Amino acid sequence: MPDSSASARDLDRVASALAASLPALNRALDRHVGRDFARPKPPEAQLALLRLVAQEEGTTVREAAHALLMRPNNVSALVSQLTEQGLLERRQDADDKRIAHLHLTSRARRELAEVRRLEGEHLARALQFLTQGERDALGSAVGALASLTRQLHVTPPAE
């Protein structure tokens, strides 16, 4: 029977390493993309909302808040900012005028595509400096990271 304290230590070690490395990776990537983006790069919260609307065209503020693990009033503020910038459109629901569905503008699609392109280029360039074993490990970990993200999304925070 495996030593449960050793397993718990391993889990704690992996959790700590992920908690430290993932935000650092995101900040480094954000810095590189921001440097190469032709205009001021939208903040990460705005990009997260734009990415979500790109995936789920017509989503509502409430649905977006749930998907992004944010408060609806914070998402509403982001929607207002992005609408003023010409990146999002609000379209009234045909049946319930109180509900607005979110849609990307053509400019938002272009800018989001540019951010994705730059992210891919910077990550691909950095991956070239890793060993084949490290690249293989990262490739194998992508699915596990997606599963971990889904698990954190469905698990209610401790109170």
Structural description of this entry:
This protein is mostly helical and 159 residues long. It contains six helices and two strands, in the order ααααββαα. The chain has helices at 4-36, 44-55, 61-68, 72-84, 106-127, 132-154, and strands spanning 88-92, 100-104. The longest helix is centred in the N-terminal third of the chain and has 33 residues, at 4-36. The chain is globular and about 55 Å long.
Features:
159 residues, mainly alpha, 2 strands, 70% helix, 6% strand, globular
Number of strands: 2
Provide the low-confidence segments as ranges: none
Mean pLDDT: 90
Assign the structural class, choosing from mainly alpha, mainly beta, alpha/beta, alpha+beta, or little secondary structure: mainly alpha
Radius of gyration: 19 Å
Task: Indicate the overall shape.
Answer: globular
Helix residue percentage: 55-70%
**What is the element string, with H for helices and E for strands?**
HHHHEEHH
Number of helices, counting only DSSP H or I runs of 4 residues or more: 6
Largest sheet: 2 strands, antiparallel
Cα distance spanning the termini = 33 Å
Portion in strands: 5-15%
Query: How do the strands of the widest beta sheet line up side by side?
Result: 1-2
